[in-house]
Write a structure and sequence with these properties.
31% of the residues lie in helices and 29% in strands. By secondary structure, it is α/β, with parallel strands linked by helices. The strands form 4 sheets. The protein has a 6-stranded mixed sheet, sandwiched between helices. The protein has a two-stranded antiparallel sheet with strand order 1-2. A two-stranded antiparallel ribbon has the order 3-4. α3 links the parallel β5 and β6. The protein is elongated. It starts with 13 loop residues before the first strand and ends with a helix.
């Protein structure tokens, strides 16, 4: 079976380099990214900035001053008041969107009848967000990281660039042990301009998550955190004497799994995800939990309900 289709009925109809179905792409074309701040870009786009410019959406009037474009004079206002007023319009500018996908070894976990693996699902979600941004005339760049940013696609613009994003995400493979702080705090990994950064990861790190997100905030980024977990991690179906292997370190541990252990484990997972969500909320970072057994279209709908898309 095609990897994109395992545990996901939409995968059998995928057309975008095996990542996203045509049906989902059509829905995304009618969507756009929601950003709290109107951020001025380097080229004209469809996103409102705080500057006045040359779009067709009227904003305000002000009196003419020498050097103004006389083509913007409102002659009707002049005839009524005898004063030369200039029309002001909202400036529509692009948003620079940086997508970071966790490619560490732990992201390969989860491929089963209950869903695709986390790395595939993270790439599918990144493809969706990237396509949405391109359709909105925003600029999009992608980085895949483990203990460093080991694969990068530079900023691009326009819907015609979507295939480059799909191909890049489809062919980029995961690596070994990850270090999110080292990967996303390095100056070369950070965006050079203010914009929006999306991070797709399981965030199952002993440390470094707060440092990585703080570095992105310091770089002038509005951040969206998408925590990708498998159903086996949230609700494991294990029982008996087992040897559990750490997928990154390779170390193993003998564990006797009982109902009590599973209950304590679920509580620990819930506590961790809630702590991450609270940390994000306190710092104005958007947070979304994504479980890999959910159809891609359903997860996109959840993004819209939570306000990440509009």
């Amino acid at each position: 079976m095609n990897e994109a289709g395992a545990g996901n009925s939409e995968g059998t109809k995928n057309t975008a380099a095996g990542l996203v179905s045509q049906e989902v792409l059509l829905r995304l074309e009618r969507s756009s990214l929601w950003a709290k701040d109107r951020i001025r870009g380097t080229m004209q786009g469809k996103r409102r900035s705080k500057q006045m410019g040359s779009s067709l959406d009227f904003a305000d009037y002000r009196l003419y001053t020498p050097g103004d474009d006389i083509r913007q004079l409102d002659w009707n206002a002049y005839w009524r008041t005898g004063k030369p007023f200039i029309k002001l319009y909202m400036d529509e500018q692009e948003l620079q969107v940086s997508l970071y996908v966790d490619g560490s070894a732990s992201m390969k976990f989860g491929a089963s009848s209950r869903g695709v693996n986390k790395y595939l699902f993270a790439r599918q979600l990144a493809a969706c967000i990237g396509y949405t941004a391109l359709c909105g005339y925003d600029r999009v760049g992608i980085g895949v990281f483990s203990d460093r940013l080991y694969a990068r696609l530079p900023m691009m613009r326009g819907k015609a660039s979507a295939q480059r994003i799909f191909d890049f995400l489809a062919r980029t493979e995961s690596r070994e042990a990850g270090d999110i702080a080292a990967a996303l705090s390095h100056p070369s990994s950070l965006p050079v301009r203010p914009g929006m950064s999306w991070v797709f990861s399981d965030f199952l790190y002993e440390s470094g998550v707060e440092q990585a997100l703080s570095s992105l905030l310091a770089a002038g980024q509005e951040i969206a955190v998408v925590q990708v977990l498998s159903p086996e991690e949230v609700d494991p179906e294990l029982f008996g004497d087992l040897r559990l292997i750490d997928v990154e370190s390779g170390s193993g541990k003998e564990v006797a799994i009982s109902g009590k252990i599973i209950k304590e484990y679920k509580a620990a997972v819930h506590q961790y995800t809630e702590a991450l969500r609270k940390y994000c909320l306190e710092r104005g970072i958007a947070y979304q939990l994504a479980i890999t057994d959910s159809p891609l279209s359903v997860t996109i709908t959840e993004f819209r309900r939570s306000g990440l898309l509009k």
